[in-house]
Structure formats: structure tokens, C-alpha cells
Design a protein that fits this description.
The protein has about 475 residues and is mainly α. Helices cover about 35% and strands about 5% of the residues. It contains 21 helices and four strands. It has helices spanning about 1-30, 65-80, 90, 135, 140, 170-175, 230-235, 240, 245-250, 270, 275-285, 290, 320, 330-335, 335-340, 345, 355-360, 375-380, 420-430, 430-435, 445-465; strands at about 250-255, 260, 380-385, 390-395. The longest helix has 28 residues, at about 1-30.
């Protein structure tokens, strides 16, 4: 009897194990919620794509090489085009081989380890705050101004960013050390997509030659109802003024281009046919990164920042900020942001001097580019490479590019209107950030002071030698 009972228990246990294995296997293969398998939550930069494990783990879960390749696929070009303080070449140089003994700086996951929330510090770093000491233990001797400084202060606001010191390196600080707080010319650069269209070979010129269209030119199928409001909205857009007809967005062409069909609600794929650079950056930012890995669009409910309760279910796609058929860029620059964001910084915007400038621009009291919208700072105008021979000024739709650390915002945004010293101080003042820069900085960062002292000491030493 005992043996028969034991046999039944073993069979029952085996059945339970098979059922559980089948259940977990179905979760892994059917695209369902996989968070059950995570050893720990992801950082703020990646938590949105936690349901897409294979976005990072393209090989085995222990394959470091494949994970690093994935990091480079998403972030590699951001390390090439800006001034990278610690490029790969610095560590592949045999003279610096000993530096790799303590930290393998050739691997992204040496400093950015996911699934370890207890170790995560600012900017997703999982190394101790004093990791700079591994290579710069003699900095006090090399730079007298740094004597007595603790090694956990290197990445303090206005000092050093491991990857991108474009606004903080010594020569740049010296070059801009005497700038006034507010520049005499406070205008952001203007977009120039239309101006350079003739030179963009990937633009579908054959389908949409640049010319002004009227309602009689609209190529909507006869069975599609087009209201007067839609016609009116479309006529006010840059699309109608530059030859982009209805079919450009609404006509979906098959992969082999043999068939086409009308779609009522175009998505980012339609935008991509003309605005591929904008869409590419959008997909890298917080708003579009879920779409880039094949997940449903992000909603404000997914955010870790406070969001307005009536916007939590809103899907964030191109048309979320640029609603058809008007595509109002002025509304997208402020109204679309404030429709969702409900943190103190966002709520304070309409009490700021930036907003007052924005209102004056909209009223025509100031020239284009004089106002400061949400997008002016968080989605700034940048000079981007279209090809090996062409650049154009465009809106950076990847908010992550200037988000953390916020010193990355200095060159593409702040310095269009403010001096470097003022910008560094303002971005280091947490209270000033919360009230949306409604006032002057109450803190002072000594980066420029130290650069100035370094310059004076260098000139003094040079003159002594002569």
C-alpha cells in the first residue's frame, strides 16, 4: 500500500512539474508577461522594454558579447558623434592596458548592470561612486585645484561626465568663461528640412515633388469621406505647401510594392517614409522605445514620473503630439507635453520667464525661435548628418539624448540664450529646476573658475620658460 501511494505521489509530482514547465515555456514563447523570470527590476532607462527580453539577450542569457553588441546597436552612435571622454580607443591603447585590470571599460555592462536595483545610482551606473579612482588616483598631483577632493564627487553636477564632456572639458570652459548670463542673441536655430530636400536622395521626390497643393489636388479615394475640417487643417500644413498628398500617409504599400491599400489611421511607419531621422530618434527615446522592440506603444501609465490621471491610457505615437491633420508644431512643443506630464517642473512652466517668451513669440511680438517651449530644451534643434556630404538642423526627438546627466543639455539647448557659466550653475540648482528656472541660480559650480586658474598658471609657466 505504501509503495502504491508513493508511486501515485511521484506521478502527481511529475505531472505538476510538467504542467509548470509547460506554463513557463508558454510565457517565454508566446510573448506574454515575462517579468516573472526577472531576477530584479530594470533601471529607469530600460524598464519599459522589460517584456522584450530578447531585445538585450539576443544570445544566451550569459552571453556578454551579444549583450554588449546590443548596447552598441542602440547607443553606439551617441558615443561616436559627441565628444566622447572615454572612447574605446583609449582603452585598447596598450599604454592603458593596466587600467582594465580594475574595470573593464571595454564592456558597457561593467558599469551598467541591469536587474540589480539595489546597486543602481545616477544615470544607471552600478559601479561605486568613487570608481574614477581606479584610473585617476594621482589627479591631486596633476591638477592642484583637485587636491583634497573626494573621489565620489567626480560626477557631481557641472564637473565630469564619463561619456560626454562636450560642455565641461577645460578648453571649452576657457573659451566661454567670460560670457554674460544672457546672450545678446537669444534665438534657437531654425529647422531646414524644406531647404535641403533637393539634396536628400532618400526623399521620394518622384511621388511628391515639392509644390503647393490645393483641395482639388487631394488624392483621397472616392469612398473615403473627407470633411471640410480635415481639408482646412491639411491646407495649413507644411505637407500641403510642399507637395505631400493624402496618399503619402494613408496609402500602405506591400513589401514587394505590388499592392497598396488605404489605411485610416497611419502610424509611425508612414511618417518614416519622409521623416526617417526623426522617427529613428523618436524610437530611441522614452516615448517610442517600446515600439522599437515590437511592443505596444507607451502610455503615461507606464511612466515613473507623475502623470495626469486623465491621460494615463493615451498611446504615445507620432500622432499623439502631432495630431492629424493639422500637425501643429506649436501645440506639440507645449500643449502635448503638459497634457500628460504632472510633475512639479512641468506644472511650474507656465509661471516661468521661458513661458512668457513663448507667448510673445506666438503673438508675433518676438521673432521665430525667441520663445522657450518644453521642446526647446528637451527636444532641441540639433545639426544632424543626413549623409556624408550633408547636414541639416532638425528636432531631436530622443529626449534621452539630453536628459541625464542634464549637462548634456548645455550645448544643444541652454547656450543658444545663456552663457556657459550661468547654464552650468542653473542645471546644478535642484530647486531652480523644480520651479522651471523661474529666477537665478542660487548655487555656483567652480568648473570655470578652476579652468581659468589653470589657464593663468599655464601662461605664467610658459612666460617663465621664455
Amino acid at each position: 500500500m505504501a509503495k502504491a501511494r508513493d508511486k501515485k505521489l511521484w506521478l502527481f509530482w511529475v505531472a505538476i512539474m510538467i504542467a509548470m514547465a509547460s506554463y513557463f515555456a508558454s510565457l517565454m514563447t508566446q510573448g506574454k508577461d515575462k517579468t516573472l523570470f526577472m531576477p530584479g527590476e530594470l533601471t529607469a532607462g530600460h524598464y519599459q522594454i522589460e517584456l522584450s527580453c530578447d531585445s538585450c539577450h539576443k544570445g544566451s542569457f550569459t552571453d556578454r558579447e551579444s549583450m554588449i553588441e546590443t548596447c552598441v546597436e542602440c547607443h553606439g552612435d551617441q558615443r561616436v558623434k559627441p565628444f566622447d571622454s572615454h572612447p574605446k580607443a583609449k582603452f585598447t591603447d596598450p599604454r592603458n592596458a593596466d587600467r582594465l585590470e580594475n574595470i573593464n571599460a571595454l564592456e558597457c555592462i561593467s558599469c551598467h548592470v541591469e536587474h540589480q536595483p539595489h546597486n543602481v545610482k545616477a544615470n544607471g551606473v552600478t559601479q561605486p561612486n568613487d570608481f574614477c579612482i581606479y584610473c585617476h588616483k594621482d589627479i591631486g598631483k596633476d591638477r592642484p585645484s583637485h587636491q583634497g577632493m573626494a573621489f565620489d564627487t567626480c560626477a557631481s553636477a557641472g564637473c565630469h561626465n564619463f561619456h560626454n564632456n562636450r560642455a565641461l572639458y577645460t578648453d571649452f570652459l576657457i573659451k566661454h568663461m567670460d560670457e554674460p548670463d544672457i546672450s545678446t542673441k537669444t534665438v534657437v536655430p531654425q529647422k531646414e528640412f524644406i531647404k535641403v530636400l533637393d539634396e536628400i536622395i532618400t526623399y521620394p521626390h518622384d511621388k511628391y515633388p515639392v509644390k503647393k497643393l490645393s483641395t482639388s489636388d487631394m488624392d483621397v479615394p472616392a469612398n473615403i469621406n473627407t470633411t471640410t475640417a480635415i481639408k482646412k487643417d491639411w491646407l495649413t500644413t507644411a505637407h500641403a505647401k510642399s507637395g505631400v498628398n493624402c496618399s503619402a500617409c494613408h496609402m500602405q504599400v506591400s513589401e514587394d510594392t505590388s499592392t497598396s491599400s488605404w489605411i485610416n489611421n497611419p502610424d509611425h511607419q508612414s511618417c518614416n517614409s519622409c521623416h526617417d531621422m526623426e522617427v529613428k530618434n523618436f524610437m530611441r527615446g522614452k516615448h517610442g522605445m517600446r515600439l522599437s522592440v515590437g511592443l505596444d506603444a507607451m502610455t503615461p501609465a507606464d511612466a515613473r514620473l507623475p502623470m495626469k490621471s486623465d491621460a494615463l491610457a493615451k498611446k504615445l505615437e507620432c500622432n499623439s503630439c502631432h495630431p492629424a491633420h493639422r500637425f501643429d508644431i506649436a501645440a506639440a512643443a507645449v500643449d502635448s507635453c503638459l497634457a500628460c506630464h504632472d510633475d512639479e517642473h512641468s506644472r511650474s512652466y507656465k509661471q516661468s520667464s521661458h513661458y512668457r517668451l513663448w507667448q510673445k513669440e506666438l503673438k508675433g511680438e518676438l521673432p521665430a525661435g525667441s520663445g522657450v517651449s518644453c521642446a526647446t530644451c528637451h527636444m532641441p534643434r540639433i545639426e544632424a548628418d543626413v549623409s556624408d556630404w550633408l547636414q541639416r538642423i532638425m528636432v531631436q526627438h530622443n529626449q534621452n539624448a539630453t536628459l541625464n546627466p542634464n549637462e548634456k543639455m548645455i550645448r544643444p539647448a541652454c547656450m543658444h540664450c545663456h552663457g556657459l557659466g550661468f547654464s552650468i550653475d542653473a542645471l546644478a540648482d535642484k530647486n531652480l529646476i523644480l520651479n522651471n528656472f523661474n529666477g537665478r541660480p542660487s548655487v555656483h559650480i567652480e568648473s570655470i573658475d578652476m579652468a581659468k586658474a589653470y589657464k593663468e598658471r599655464h601662461e605664467k609657466e610658459k612666460s617663465a620658460v621664455q
